[in-house]
Design brief:
single chain, alpha/beta, eight-stranded parallel β-barrel, 11 helices
Length: about 250
């Protein structure tokens, strides 16, 4: 994904447009339309998570996104044979390997890379050979950052959920500890030559401290933007997030 030097990229996750569509079992609202609107509103990329149980994004959505997008697609996926085959067929710009449990409402926690280095190294090798950039979604933990680097990932995405939850619940000492940990692991990952992204749970109230980290290249934000778009529209919701990110980076 190429943007001007120093610009913090915004990836917009459209999963929950599909969640609303699937609640009625029809074709509306269309995630592809949301993706194109997000692109027109200034999103630097689109993220979509094809889950094993297809609870929101569908196989047809991925096919459609590959056809209609001008900005890169970040394909979030579990480390399973089925998802690897789908990614190798479509060859998206990027694949982000995330943990996945069927009972989860959303992805909770980062991938356990340190305990599964050998399996994950073999899993991502064909994805890299196919031309997709491989990102690993992990907690801000030195063991996991080091392991992601060892297995050949080019990108890490640091899980910001703990920081965002602590802020929302008024646990400010814990929030500050989480922010410090994210800051340290951002610097550490960058020092290893990894591109560092961040995401999960970010809102207008929590985005600026993360966006201010100069080593962070990209933020991936979905649920909040889609929720906010109910009240102010998708393009204005993205524009406000973009404004806050740029303000923090400046």
């Amino acid at each position: 994904m190429t943007t001007e030097t120093g610009k913090l990229r915004l990836g917009v996750n459209i999963d929950h447009v599909a969640t609303v569509r699937n609640a009625r079992g029809g074709a509306y609202p269309d995630p592809l339309r949301a993706a194109k609107l997000a692109e027109e509103a200034g999103a630097d990329g689109i993220t979509a998570h094809l889950r094993e149980d297809r609870r929101h994004i569908s196989d047809a959505d991925i096919e459609g996104l590959m056809d209609v997008l001008s900005v890169p697609l970040n394909f979030e996926m579990a480390a399973t044979d089925e998802m690897q085959k789908i990614a190798l067929r479509h060859k998206p710009h990027a694949v982000c390997i995330v943990p996945e449990k069927r009972e989860e409402r959303t992805t909770e926690g980062g991938l356990e890379v340190a305990r599964e280095e050998n399996r994950l190294a073999h899993f991502i090798a064909p994805l890299r050979e196919a031309g997709s950039r491989v990102s690993i979604f992990i907690a801000a933990d030195m063991r996991q950052v080091e392991a992601a680097h060892r297995i050949g990932a080019e990108v890490i995405e640091l899980h910001t959920g703990g920081y965002c939850d602590a802020h929302a619940e008024g646990r400010f000492d814990e929030r500050d500890d989480e922010l410090k940990r994210l800051r340290e692991m951002t610097e550490f990952g960058h020092s290893l030559g990894l591109e560092v992204h961040a995401g999960h749970g970010l809102t207008y109230d929590t985005v600026k401290p993360i966006a201010a980290f100069p080593e962070v290249a990209e933020l991936n934000i979905g649920h909040f933007i889609i929720g906010e778009s109910i009240f102010r529209g998708l393009a204005p919701s993205i524009a406000e997030m973009r404004r806050l990110m740029d303000e923090a980076r400046a």
